[in-house]
Design goal:
Length: about 240
């Protein structure tokens, strides 16, 4: 299948979770390409560069190098920490643009984002294997005073955001720490973010959520319609 023309096709930028790589979003990228999107599936230094540098320097430089500014519309699809990187990037862009989001920014879908932080990061922040695997950012995904996601504020209402959470866990201990429904790493409640347009819960774990076919279908629906339902929302009622 030929690659979509970047001058006419919407672009989707994919960002994986902490300690992973572009391979983790490969199935979603293939699904989106098959429906006509141009996809850019980054591997980013999630363990070695702090959030602030990823948001203010690394991601903008990569978007420029891939010619994203020339795309008619740019969407983001993220998993876990990738959603927090996009939130930090968007706040930085708004700061530079007088409070306005970047021109051409379309819709955003976050899979299992720790938007309110994760109790697992709180519990493991001093555990050496966790610190090694998650690098400079893992402990900052918790719920304490140094939590990056908790400090980023609400989502801007003018940008459609859809959040997909999982409610299956592969680790009973982590599930006990989180309390309530969770994907084993992030609670369903903590994926929610003020300003989001829609929220969907699927029966998958944190590790496998981005690989599942129903997740890919839901992502496609939101990018097309701005909601996770199977059709576009009805038009507003006409005042009588």
């Amino acid at each position: 299948m030929p690659s979509p023309d970047p001058r006419t096709a919407d672009t989707v930028v994919l960002l994986h979770g902490i300690g992973l790589g572009a391979w983790a979003m490969a199935r979603l990228a293939r699904s989106l390409r098959a429906t006509g999107y141009r996809t850019i599936n980054f591997t980013y230094p999630s363990r070695s560069l702090p959030f602030e540098q990823l948001a203010a320097e690394w991601l903008p430089a990569q978007l420029r190098s891939r010619g994203v500014a020339t795309a008619p519309r740019v969407h983001f699809v993220t998993h876990s920490m990738g959603g927090i990187v996009v939130r930090a990037w968007l706040r930085e862009e708004q700061r530079k643009n007088g409070g306005h989001p970047p021109a051409g920014l379309g819709r955003v879908v976050m899979l299992a984002p720790p938007n309110q932080g994760s109790a697992v990061a709180d519990r493991l922040r001093r555990f050496p294997p966790f610190r090694w695997f998650t690098g400079v950012n893992g402990a900052r995904l918790g719920t304490g005073t140094d939590s990056v996601p908790c400090a980023l504020g609400p989502w801007p209402a003018e940008i459609d955001l859809g959040v997909i959470a999982g409610n299956r866990t592969l680790n009973p201990l982590f599930a006990a720490w989180l309390g309530g429904a969770s994907d084993g790493k992030v609670s369903v409640a903590s994926t929610r973010l003020a300003g989001m347009r829609d929220h969907l819960v699927l029966p998958h774990s944190h590790t496998w959520l981005q690989w599942r076919a129903d997740t890919a279908r839901a992502v496609g629906r939101f990018l097309q319609h701005g909601r996770f339902g199977s059709s576009a929302p009805p038009p507003p009622a006409t005042p009588s």
